[in-house]
Amino acid sequence: MWYRRTFTVPKGWKVGDGKRLNLNFDAVDWQAEVYVNGRKITEHKGGYDRFTADVTDALKRGGPQELVVGVYDPTDSPGGENPPVGKQRLNPEGIWYTPSSGIWQTVWMEPVAADHATDVRTTPDVAGEKVAVQVRGVRDGLPVTAVAYDGEREAGRAIGTTGSALSVPVPDPHLWSPDDPHLYRLKVTVGKGASADRAGSYFGMRSIGVETVDGKQRTVLNGKPVFSMATLDQGFWPDGLHTAPTDEALAYDLVMHKKLGYNSVRKHIKVEPDRWFYHADRLGLLVWQDMPSMRSDRNPDAAARKQFESELKEMIEQHDSHPSVIMWVTFNEGWGQYDQARIADYAKELDPTRLVNNMSGHNCCGAVDGGNGDISDAHGYPGAQLPAPDGERALVSGEYGGLGLAIPGHAWPVRHTYVGVERDTYTDQYLSRLKEVEQLAACRGSNGAVYTQITDLEGELNGLLTYDRKVVKPDVQRLKAAHDALVEGASEGSLSCSAS
Length: 500
Description:
By secondary structure, the protein is of the alpha/beta class. The chain is built from six helices and 29 strands.
């Protein structure tokens, strides 16, 4: 694929006078080459992460500038490269969907100082009442100031130099949670005077971990057990595939999670734009973020493994400051699996502050559990299942449900569903399956469940919403009441076990 357009640089940006011009590509699937005025500037492999091209030296004096982007995307071509593709297939059927290729996230340009931050990582320390602020992408030794605000009030500040994290005080922190998604603002300045680089950001004060509570391994948010009630969210739209039509549409599925009483969402083998994570942060949802998988029926070679790990690193580092993200899921049901334990350890090394699930559904489809990480995860359809306890990891039902219901006028041709139901019994059958989830929490210490799924998708009719998002299938109030009761009871340990 080839893209061509022209652009002009606003005169007020004063590019070349102590400033550089960056072109930022939030995501291009899969391999991109960038040319400005006929000069190759950069190339990049990876379909889900941002890359930046400094185009300053290729600019002409005034007038329009030519931008050309070439893209190659093998998707799942036989005999070719084996990149992380998630659910995309050249021949979609069943649980595999129409692929996206090329530029599918925002492209934008900005003037930057010669010394500028490319990213700001924030790592909260609730017990220490502080947040670590790490400026990325700039040379060491430059003066840096970080100031945290609670609303308009300054909460704390720190001054230091780049190359090490600043410790910004956050006294008596207002904790972030699904019930109270409180966010602090952050201002960071690199350098001094007119040439200083200034960046705005935000963070949430929260902790996440696994602890032994009453003899069982429990996921613990801000020091208290928390049950994750989630849906599988695959992030496809009928008019844009990977790309939502508007920012409102990007947020809509998350808004519906909250209205339906979910406190969590599993982003299934796709990585969304930063705006999606912002919406999860501000709305208050616990995100399980999957790494997009390689082909499920191929043993990845050395080149494919190297690329997979490169894209895993980029995914984690681009999104490791969002308070909503509590878990990295490195593999799903054995799809493209290799070195499961090592990859889980690698994810934990990259981000020791979050949970790692080494294999969602290690009871399914030839998957091999690496035996490590923080979470042990089983899939079951339609009824939820749990893995056997190992005394080390918290137990979850990584997928269950899949109740299929076609809504006339809003359904694509049926290719796959787990179990069909009638509309007048849909809510009752959903709540019946939820009762099984409740019993797993009450009797076996389950820490979470992921219902399949939030929306219909091409040939799948097991969504709570239709693919076009025009029809909500269940009774919203009944689901919210049941989810609220489950999350509260499972988190507090007050559910009653009725198993024999």
